[in-house]
Amino acid sequence: MENNLLWIFLLVPAAITILNIILPVAVRKYLNLAGLVFMLIPVYMLYQGNPGSINILDYTVFAADKIAIFALTFIQILSFIIFLFCLKGVDKSVEGPFMTLYPLTVAFCNGVVISENMIAFLIFWGLSGLTVYLYGILGKTHEAPGTAKKTFIILGGSDALLIFGFVLIWYLLQRSTMDISLMQLPLVSTASYVAFFLLLIAALAKAGGFPFHTWVPDFTRDAPVESAAFLPASLDKLLGIYLLARMMNSLFTFDFLINMIVVTIGTLTVITAVMMAMEQHNGKKLLGYHAVSQVGYMIMGVGSANPIAFAGGLFHLINHTIYKSNLFLAMGSVEKQTKTAELDYLGGLGSRMPLTFLMALIGALSISGIPPFNGFFSKWMIYQGLIEQVALIGTGYKIWLLICLILAVFGSALTLASFMKFIHATFLGKRPAIWNEIKEAPANQWISTGMLALLCVVFGIFALELPLGLTIIPALGDAGIILPDFTGLYAPKVITIMMAITALLAILVYRLVRKTRYDNVYLGGMEADDKFRIAGTSFYNEIRQMNPLKYIYSMAEKKYFDLYEAGSKTTFAISRVIQGAHPGQLQLYLLYILLGLLIFLIII
């Protein structure tokens, strides 16, 4: 207990969780809030000196280098901001368990990041996955129990592979250490490659990377929207990419082929998820697919073997947690006011919920990579790093990497198109009459989304000074990754001034020459009812009918690309075969015994 600073990140949220079991719900809220505010203090103290380590029975169990401090920082900041949204609006029927689970989740995620010991890491990693399942069963849709089970099986199965992978590393290193920072396994044997890919599966499943991503859009649709912003959009992304960064930087040594495999997985994550997002009509599921798509850029950056792209991948991780939490919470505000997240039934809410509209617009511009918002800078760094890497590799790898880069840029364009749909379908267009009395979200909700929107702007304009300069670049330097003096040929402050001048000129021209006439829509000589209103999703229905996309979308709807569904069907098919082979006839069982004995004798 001599180094109390690291203990704080575990003991304070754990103690709050225990107290919440017996306290009234109203008290739990403010105890959680007080605890989350308090947790910002040790985060600040981490930057004032070496936090040291915590030893138990002569084993180093907890420690924090600068990459861990980077992850800890944003776990606490995001947990605090998202919880402001939760102060008012959480479904009353689940508010009690939700408030108890919240600090427990923070404790487990903190535990993952500061765990130096392999066993401690595995324990906290598994417990953090368990909380995702517990949040899933709080959902109120008919599909929520099935989605929670799906989430548990995918994350739980990948956790089992993670355990096997770490045990394999420990065995291959001749049991020399259980300290994760001291493990460095060269990929020179089949077993070492197996260990790498087992850990990669766990990281991809946690972060929501292809092809282990299918739990994310279902979870975001069915679980409480606050937990969607809290976990798959934020903390789970942090943990998954944190593990991937450790793997690519220190846990293993390998040749460039492994980097290209990881970059390709990132590219597939970007393009497949954004194509699925294009055709979604449920706002939360659309955001869920984009939560998957954006993780592809992080995987590409971290897996690229280029310092600028690596830094860009970590920066994009932080940017994603900010703008995606903003978008989920903005959609949550709309859902709480209208009782629906179906885009076909929304529209025109911008004038009724102007603050929520503004915050969602900033989040949409950020995720679409529009300068000077934060999403552009991190993508720019990834692109530049990949282009630099192209100049350093052989011809075959050049073509391979350029294809990945082109697909990633195309995915960014599709993201912009998808969020034009999201913003128009929710906040613009003609408003159905039933929403004419809708009011702005409560103050705690727009303050929370407003803080996240502000970070989108600040982290875009002052990226070099704040997130990069204070956290990411020092963390990478501590890990032996040295960035050049510049982190991308991009001047955010100059771009901001130019964009501001352009916007002001556009407003001026509009004011001087606008000639706008509003007419009612008539059908058969009568004013058209709401059922004839063209929803914001209508244009994108045409994409669904294009060749060959309509066949791909049809197969996706039938779950042909869902590993969980494919695995379930295979498992049940094998089960039926086994059941059919056991009709209860004694002579058949005797035959099985004789066949088994014969096989055993042949093997011997």
Average pLDDT rating? 92
Beta-strand share of residues: under 5%
Order of helices and strands: HHEEHHHHEHHHEHHHHHHHHHEEHHHH
Helix content: over 70%
**Spatial extent as radius of gyration:** 26 Å
Structural commentary:
The chain is mostly helical. Helix content is 71%, strand content 3%. The chain contains 22 helices and six strands. Strands 1-2 form a two-stranded antiparallel ribbon. Strands 3-4 form a two-stranded parallel sheet. Strands 5-6 form a two-stranded antiparallel ribbon. Strand 1 (53-56) and strand 2 form a beta hairpin. The radius of gyration is 26 Å and the shape is globular.
SSE layout and pairings?
Elements: H1 4-22, H2 25-46, E1 53-56, E2 59-63, H3 66-86, H4 95-114, H5 118-136, H6 144-172, E3 185-186, H7 190-207, H8 215-222, H9 225-251, E4 252-253, H10 256-278, H11 283-302, H12 307-338, H13 354-367, H14 374-390, H15 395-427, H16 443-461, H17 464-478, H18 492-513, E5 522-523, E6 526-527, H19 541-544, H20 549-557, H21 563-580, H22 586-603
Parallel strand pairs: 3-4
Antiparallel strand pairs: 1-2, 5-6
